[in-house]
Design goal:
The complex is a heterotetramer, with 2 copies of chain A (142 residues) and 2 copies of chain C (85 residues). Chain A has 3 helices and 7 strands, in the order αβββαβββαβ. With 142 residues, chain A is α+β, with helices and mostly antiparallel strands. In chain A, strands 2, 3, 5 and 7 form a 4-stranded antiparallel beta sheet that branches. A 3-stranded antiparallel beta sheet of chain A has the order 1-6-4, sandwiched between helices. Classes of the chains: A alpha+beta (142), C alpha+beta (85).
Chain lengths: 142, 142, 85, 85
Amino acid sequence: MTDRPLSVAAAFRALEGPGAGAVSIFVGRVRPDPGPAGRVVALVYEAHRGPALARFRALARAAERRFRTLRVVIWHRSGRLRVGEISVIVGTACAHRAPAFAAARFLIEDLKVTVPIWKSERARPGRRPRRRPARPGGRSAG
Amino acid sequence: MTDRPLSVAAAFRALEGPGAGAVSIFVGRVRPDPGPAGRVVALVYEAHRGPALARFRALARAAERRFRTLRVVIWHRSGRLRVGEISVIVGTACAHRAPAFAAARFLIEDLKVTVPIWKSERARPGRRPRRRPARPGGRSAG
Amino acid sequence: MARPVTVLLFAGARVAVGRSELRWSVPPGGLAAGDLARQIAAEYPRLAPILRSSRLVRNGEYVRSASETVRPGDEFAIHPPYGGG
Amino acid sequence: MARPVTVLLFAGARVAVGRSELRWSVPPGGLAAGDLARQIAAEYPRLAPILRSSRLVRNGEYVRSASETVRPGDEFAIHPPYGGG
């Protein structure tokens, strides 16, 4: 969990190391979807920080056990993110590509439903902001 | 196809653009696997350039048709690559994460069997080099 | 004097209460987690429907039973369904 | 004088022939792709087993039939199974 912008290049560097023939990185970004309160211009992410970080660590261990990941990145933004900003990066380094893909998919799917993070939308200025925390199918694909 | 080092950051930049809520990037790197001729220290990639590029374009069109990709990257190195160097990057930008993952997986799987690129191993110096072009299950996970 | 419980409210629970954190007094011997949640919802009625789909968390661990005791000084959190990513 | 066919050899085919490119004379009216491949393999016997698992390519397009004509000036390539990635 960080307040600062996430970097794909930094995520890739964090995944480097011997034996990592296959690296899979997934990046979720804020999309300018139309919503009932107007076009989304930002998402605000909040988290229960301690349990969220504990869950990240548990997810990393689960990926290692299930997919033999060599290295894993699970990074999530908190605070207010404008459209186009990166909300989440998950990355996996494995010897082979099939587990690298599977582990990355596992991490992002599990993150969305098991990590105490919530988002609320901020719609186009000029209309009343509308809060929809924890709505499934939110405005970020991540 | 390029002789120059591939950059994950550049691939991500090439995938940016409106509506791309989900980006999936796969990176294949040369692994130092043990082989019958000694530990692999490098791979040499050769390609039939014109048909390879034509096939890349066809793959990009197929991804767009099948997975509604908004943008696609298919980059492959040629020439001699040392262990740890990036041999291939495929990347996809979609509105949602499921097609982004599926399209990236489609691109790398298809690339390996339909694009006229071949690799041969260079083993640890001090032993006779051994050439194993076009062997399935080569020494790069990409 | 007994220390209060720190109650953390997120997302819809935060909106329903109008704050992200409360101090809540509990008896020196503590209070069942389910009773604590009901007490808070009694004071903030908009919280009641959100509680039905939320998980309760005590000191960073999920509450496994509504009868689990929340003690003075504990951190107690209400987690509506998650929406990260 | 008829122009030769440019023959491109990759991977195992390149190793078998010892070169990545050949110039191969064909009659002015051309030669069936299958016959051309057999002629080359007759001169470079180590190529024969590789040809069995290879695809033939004329001017960047897969040869669909061994009887397809390769003409003077064409580019003719032998593609062993691919191994990119």
